[in-house]
């Protein structure tokens, strides 16, 4: 990726440590100044094209290192920790594309691509090929075109090139109704929408159309969490948002995300974020 292309992206990104939507539909720009550690939720199925810097992504027991020249695929909403690492580059920069299942499925159907077996893990990383880099540069240049005349065509071309890389198997599995990835996505979507409810593994397995043992195995392989650990992480991430952003009280937050015991909530919150929920509430109060 040339310095001019990277400068174009930075010019449209604005401030650091912020994910900014671009003028091109479903495209956002992520710029972060390391070293920082972020607890977040990948709220879309996305492809992240890493243009500068390095990061480590922690998903349950799994860890992925991505750096400039890599493409990262995240198949659905996932509670992740991201460590932006300090290296010779002053900032981490990526262009993120939120994937629509129907849109991608239509592209795959048109080119009738055949891919090898996908990785058992949901998250996948591969190197950008020359065709991917060339097409990505043309897509980024579209940010300077007020009409965005070719942006949609370049997005489709980008997918065609990616389907020819090792990432193609994961992308194909994402849209295939019969794949384990698609079935686990269905359970994840349900947990994301109903994380405050009491949910059993048996219910999730039934929703996914899998046996309970097979579902548990594949869910942990794809997400890095057991189903109930995954639900707990969703609850805690949302609790962190309610306290820090909406300035909710500890008790109000605990019950809103599905906890019945305040002591259990406080214990698990501190284990996840390093401070108690009361400390975060007090910090909010101190800063107004």
Automatic annotation (TrEMBL):
Coiled-coil ranges (or none): none
Assigned keywords, A-Z: DNA-binding, Transcription, Transcription regulation
SMART domains named among the record's database cross-references: HTH_ARAC
InterPro entries: Homeodomain-like_sf, HTH-like, HTH_AraC, RmlC-like_jellyroll, Tscrpt_reg_HTH_AraC_N
Keyword set includes Transcription regulation: yes
A Pfam family this chain is assigned to: AraC_N
SUPFAM superfamilies with a match to the protein in the record: Homeodomain-like, Regulatory protein AraC
PROSITE patterns in the cross-refs: HTH_ARAC_FAMILY_2
Span of domain HTH araC/xylS-type: 185-283
GO molecular function list: DNA-binding transcription factor activity; sequence-specific DNA binding
Protein name: HTH araC/xylS-type domain-containing protein
Organism this protein belongs to: Neisseria chenwenguii
Phylogenetic placement of the source organism: Bacteria, Pseudomonadati, Pseudomonadota, Betaproteobacteria, Neisseriales
